[in-house]
TrEMBL record, chain A:
GO terms for cellular component: nucleolus. It comes from the Eukaryota. It comes from Jaculus jaculus (Lesser Egyptian jerboa). Keywords: Nucleus. Signal peptide: none annotated. GO terms for molecular function: rRNA binding. This is Ribosome production factor 2 homolog. InterPro entries: Brix, Rpf2. Residues 1-208 form the Brix domain. It holds the Pfam family Brix. It is found in: Nucleus, Nucleolus.
Length: 257, 367
C-alpha cells in the first residue's frame, strides 16, 4: 500500500484515504480531465473550454485539454491523455466553426449524465490517427462506468462525423416518442455546442508505450470456465476427469456357484 | 360474408404491425458496431448524404444522427431490465472498447520482516476488540492510540522498584523507553520501505519510457549496454573524459600461488590443528536451534493442512493459500544444504545480532 510506504506517513485518516485514492490500483478510478487556457487564447477558444466544462470535471487528472490561438494556428485545441503522469497521446484540433451552448436556445440536460456516443464515417477505422482520435474522444467523454443505466434517464447523445478531413461534433438532446411497440422512436433536438474540427498535428505514443498502458491485470481478465462446452443445439456438456481405476478392485457381480 | 372481413382484418393487422415497426426501423447498408458498456455505436457507412449537402450539412447531420441514435436505442432496449426503486433499469454489459490505463499496474511488494517471520511460524492475526475496559479511569478506552487504556507514561504514581537507585527519575525513564521504542519502530519501517523500493527499480533494460532518469540510472543502463556485446565489452571505446566504472572487478579474490610463505604455513598448521582436536567445531547451540526451527515450521505446515481439511468454506482460504506456497519451498531450501541454505533467509546485518542473542536462549531451551 503506497500510503503506508511513504517516508512521511499521513497523520490523519483523511490524508491516508486521499493518498490511497491516488495510487495505482487494479481497477482504476474514473479519469478526470483538466482544461487549461493557453497563454494566448481568444474568445472562441475560451468559450469552447467553458462549454467543455459542462461535460467534464477537473482535478488531478489524466486527461487534458489545452486551448490557444496564434496567427499560425488559429483557434487551436489540444486534447490529450496521460499515463503514469507522462504524456501518452496528444492531438491538436483546429476549430473552424463553433456554436456555443448559449447560442442555441433550448433546454439543457442535467450535468453528469452519461452520454450516448456515436461515431459515423469510415475514416474512423481506416487511418491510425483517426482511430486514436476516436479512442481519445471515447476516453474523454465516456463518463463513469456503471453496471446499470436507467432507460428513461438517457438524456443526450454526442455525434462525431468524419468527412473530408473534418470532424463534425454535434450534441443533441434525446426525445423519446411513443411508437407502437416497446422501443420508443427517437427525435433529436440540437442542444449543446457544435464544433467543426480539423485534425492538425498529432503526437501519438510509441507502440510499446501504448501496449504498456493497455496492459490489463490478470485479475481483471475474465476467467474462462474450463471443461464446459456447448453444442449447436444448445445442450451444455461438462467434462469430468477420473483417476485411473484399478480394475482388479472393481466391484463386479458375484456369481454364486 | 364474414370470410372477406376476416381476411381484410388480417391484412389490416399486418399493415399496422409493419407501420409500427417502421417508426423504429432504420435501414443501413453496413451494420453498426455497438459497445453497450460505453453506450457507444460506430457507423462504418460512408456518409454520402452529408457529403452531398455542401456547406451547411446541418439537416443531413441531424438526420444521420437520428438514424444512428435510433439503432443504438433499439439495441439498448433489448438488454435485460430490472426494477430498482420504481425505475426501469437496464443492466449494461462490460465495455468492450479497450482504453489505456491511467497509472501502471501496482507491483507486488516484498514481504516485511514481520510478515516473513509470521509466515514461517504460522502466526495469524488474532481478532482483537477495539475498546478495553480501563480500571483506573472506570471507562472503556481504546486499546492503543490517543487516550489509551494502559498508558504507562501517564501514571501519576510509580513505586521505586527494589533494585533501583532512589534518586532516579522513574517517570523520565519511562518516557525515554517509549521514545526508544518509537525510534526503533520507525527505523524498521524505513528499512522495510528501502527493501521494497529496491525491488521496484528493475524496469525494461534500465530505460524509462519518457527519458527522465537520474544520472546514476543512466550510468547503470549504459554500463549494462556496454557489457552486452559478444566480447563482453572488451573492445568498446570510451569517450575522452569518461572514467572507468568502479565496482566492476572480480567478486572473489584468491591468494597468489606463491608469495607469503609465513601466512601460508600458519594457515596450514591451523587446519591441521582443527582436524586433530577432539572438541567438535560444530556450534551445537546453533545446530539445535536450526533443527528446532525446522520442526516448528513443519508443525505449522501440518497444522495448516489439518485445519484446511477440517474447515471447509468457513476457514480463511487467503492466508492459508499463501502459506502453502511459502511452506514447502523454504523447507526444500533448508533441506538442500545445511548452513548454506539457512544463510539465505537471514539478512547479514541483523543476522549478527540475532546470532549473538540466540545462544543464551538456545542454552535455556536445551535444558
Amino acid at each position: 500500500m503506497d500510503a503506508l510506504d511513504r517516508v512521511v506517513k499521513p497523520k490523519t485518516k483523511r490524508a491516508k484515504r486521499f493518498l490511497e485514492k491516488r495510487e495505482p490500483k487494479l481497477s482504476e478510478n474514473i479519469k478526470n480531465a483538466m482544461l487549461i487556457k493557453g497563454g494566448n487564447a481568444n474568445a472562441t477558444v475560451m468559450q469552447v473550454l467553458r462549454d467543455m466544462e459542462f461535460f467534464s470535471k477537473k482535478s488531478d487528472c489524466s486527461l487534458f485539454m489545452f486551448g490557444s490561438h496564434n496567427k499560425k494556428r488559429p483557434n487551436n485545441l489540444v486534447i490529450g491523455r496521460m499515463y503514469d503522469y507522462h504524456v501518452l497521446d496528444m492531438i491538436e484540433l483546429g476549430i473552424e466553426k463553433f456554436v456555443s451552448l448559449k447560442d442555441i436556445k433550448n433546454s439543457k440536460c442535467p450535468e453528469g449524465t452519461k452520454p450516448l456516443l456515436i461515431f459515423a464515417g469510415d475514416d474512423f477505422d481506416v487511418t491510425e490517427d483517426y482511430r486514436r482520435l476516436k479512442n481519445l474522444l471515447i476516453d474523454f467523454f465516456r463518463g463513469p462506468t456503471v453496471p446499470n443505466v436507467r432507460l428513461a434517464g438517457l438524456e443526450y447523445v454526442l455525434h462525431f462525423t468524419a468527412l473530408n478531413g473534418k470532424v463534425y461534433f454535434r450534441s443533441y438532446k434525446l426525445l423519446l416518442k411513443k411508437s407502437g411497440c416497446r422501443t420508443p422512436r427517437i427525435e433529436l433536438e440540437e442542444m449543446g455546442p457544435s464544433l467543426d474540427l480539423v485534425l492538425r498535428r498529432t503526437h501519438l505514443a510509441s507502440d510499446d508505450l501504448y501496449k504498456l498502458s493497455m496492459k490489463m491485470p490478470k485479475a481483471l481478465k475474465p476467467k474462462k470456465k474450463k471443461n464446459i462446452s456447448q453444442d449447436t443445439f444448445g445442450t451444455t456438456y461438462g467434462r469430468i476427469h477420473m483417476q485411473k481405476q484399478d480394475l482388479s478392485k472393481l466391484q463386479t457381480r458375484k456369481m454364486k456357484g | 360474408m364474414e370470410a372477406p372481413n376476416v381476411e381484410e382484418l388480417l391484412v389490416q393487422a399486418e399493415r399496422d404491425e409493419a407501420q409500427k415497426l417502421q417508426r423504429i426501423t432504420v435501414h443501413k447498408e453496413l451494420e453498426l458496431e455497438f459497445d453497450l458498456g460505453n453506450l457507444l455505436a460506430s457507423d462504418r457507412n460512408p456518409p454520402t448524404t452529408v457529403r452531398h449537402a455542401g456547406a451547411t450539412p446541418e439537416a443531413e447531420l441531424r438526420a444521420l444522427a437520428r438514424d444512428n441514435t435510433q439503432l443504438l436505442i433499439n439495441e439498448l432496449w433489448q438488454l435485460p431490465t430490472e426494477r430498482v426503486e420504481e425505475a426501469v433499469v437496464a443492466r449494461l454489459p462490460e465495455p468492450s472498447t479497450r482504453l489505456p490505463r491511467e497509472k501502471p499496474l501496482p507491483r507486488p511488494r516484498p514481504l516485511t520482516r514481520w510478515q516473513q517471520f509470521a509466515r514461517l511460524k504460522g502466526i495469524r492475526p488474532k481478532k482483537k476488540t477495539n475498546l478495553v475496559w480501563d480500571e483506573a479511569s472506570g471507562q472503556w478506552r481504546r486499546r492503543w492510540g490517543y487516550k489509551r487504556a494502559r498508558d504507562d507514561t501517564k501514571e501519576w504514581l510509580i513505586e521505586v522498584p527494589g533494585g533501583a537507585d532512589p534518586m532516579e527519575d522513574q517517570f523520565a525513564k519511562r518516557i525515554q523507553a517509549k521514545k526508544e521504542r518509537v525510534a526503533k519502530n520507525e527505523l524498521n519501517r524505513l528499512r522495510n520501505l528501502a527493501r521494497a523500493h529496491k525491488m521496484q527499480v528493475p524496469s525494461a533494460a534500465g530505460l524509462h519510457p519518457t527519458g527522465h532518469q537520474s544520472k546514476e540510472e543512466l550510468g547503470r543502463a549504459m554500463q549494462v549496454a556496454k557489457v552486452s556485446t559478444a566480447s563482453v565489452g572488451r573492445f568498446q571505446e570510451r569517450l575522452p573524459k569518461e572514467k572507468a566504472p568502479r565496482g566492476s572487478g572480480k567478486k572473489r579474490k584468491f591468494q597468489p600461488l606463491f608469495g607469503d610463505f609465513a601466512a601460508e604455513k600458519k594457515s596450514q598448521l591451523e587446519l591441521l590443528r582443527v582436524m586433530n582436536s577432539k572438541k567438535p567445531q560444530l556450534d551445537v547451540t546453533r545446530a539445535t536451534n536450526k533443527q528446532m526451527r525446522e520442526e516448528d515450521q513443519e508443525a505449522a505446515a501440518q497444522r495448516k493442512k489439518m485445519s484446511q481439511k477440517g474447515k471447509r468454506k468457513g476457514g480463511r482460504p487467503g492466508p492459508g493459500g499463501k502459506r502453502k506456497g511459502g511452506g514447502p519451498p523454504s523447507q526444500g531450501g533448508k533441506r538442500k544444504g545445511g548452513l548454506g541454505g539457512k544463510m539465505q533467509s537471514r539478512p547479514p546485518g541483523v543476522g549478527g545480532k540475532r546470532r549473538g542473542g540466540v545462544q543464551p536462549h538456545g542454552g535455556k531451551r536445551r535444558k
